Amino acid sequence: MLPIAIGADDAAIELKNIVKAFIQQQGLEVVDYSQDANNPLYPDIAFTVATAIKEGKFERGILLCGTGIGMSIVANKVAGIRAAQCHDTYSAERARKSNDAQVMTLGARVIGPELAKSIVAAWLASNFEGGGSTSKVEKIGYYEGLKGA
C-alpha cells in the first residue's frame, strides 16, 4: 500500500498526532500535510491532500479539523475525489466498501482518540466491493463531469 496522506488544521493537531502514530503502529507510512506556513488554512490542507491523491501519490488520505465537515467539503471539490466524513466504524466501512472514498475526514471536537483509532482501523481494513455499488460510483463521476455525457 502507498503511504497514507494525513492533514489537520489547528483544531485537530492533537488528534492527528494520535491517528498518525496509530497508523504507523500498523506498519504503514504516513505523510503529514498538516497546518504549516505552506498550508495555513484547512481549505489549503484539504485541497493539497486531495490533489496528491488524484495525482496518484497516495491511494488514501485522512483529514481532520474541528468537525470534519470543512475538510470534507473542500476535498470533494477536487474532481475524482470522494471524501466521506466518518464518526463511527460503520460509516467508515461503507465509505470504502460502497462509495470507494479515498479520503476520510474526522472531527476532533466530535470524537475522542479511542473512537478515532477504531474508525481509522475499520476504514483501512475496508476496500471497495464493486458489484452494485460500481454503477453508483460511476454515476458520481458522470455528475462530476469526469465522463462523457
Structural notes for this entry:
- By secondary structure, the protein is α/β, with parallel strands linked by helices.
- It contains six helices and five strands.
- The chain has helices at 13-25, 42-54, 69-75, 89-97, 113-125, 132-144, and strands at residues 4-8, 30-32, 60-65, 83-85, 103-107.
- α1 (13-25) links the parallel β1 (4-8) and β2.
- α1 (13-25) packs across α5 and α4 packs parallel to α5.
- 40% of the residues are buried.
- The model has no long low-confidence stretch (mean pLDDT 92).
Which descriptors would you attach to this protein?
single chain; 5 strands; five-stranded parallel sheet; 15% strand; 149 residues; alpha/beta
Give the helices and strands as they follow along the chain: EHEHEHEHEHH
Largest sheet entry: 5 strands, parallel
The count of β-strands is 5
Helical coverage, percent range: 40-55%
- Global structural class: alpha/beta
Shape: globular
Q: Radius of gyration in whole Å, from Cα? A: 14 Å
Uncertain regions spanning at least 5 consecutive residues: none
Tell me the quaternary state. Answer: single chain
End-to-end C-alpha gap: 33 Å
Strand coverage percent:
5-15%
Q: Going across the biggest sheet, name each strand in turn.
A: 2-1-3-5-4
User: Overall mean pLDDT score?
Assistant: 92
Instruction: Please give the count of helices.
Output: 6
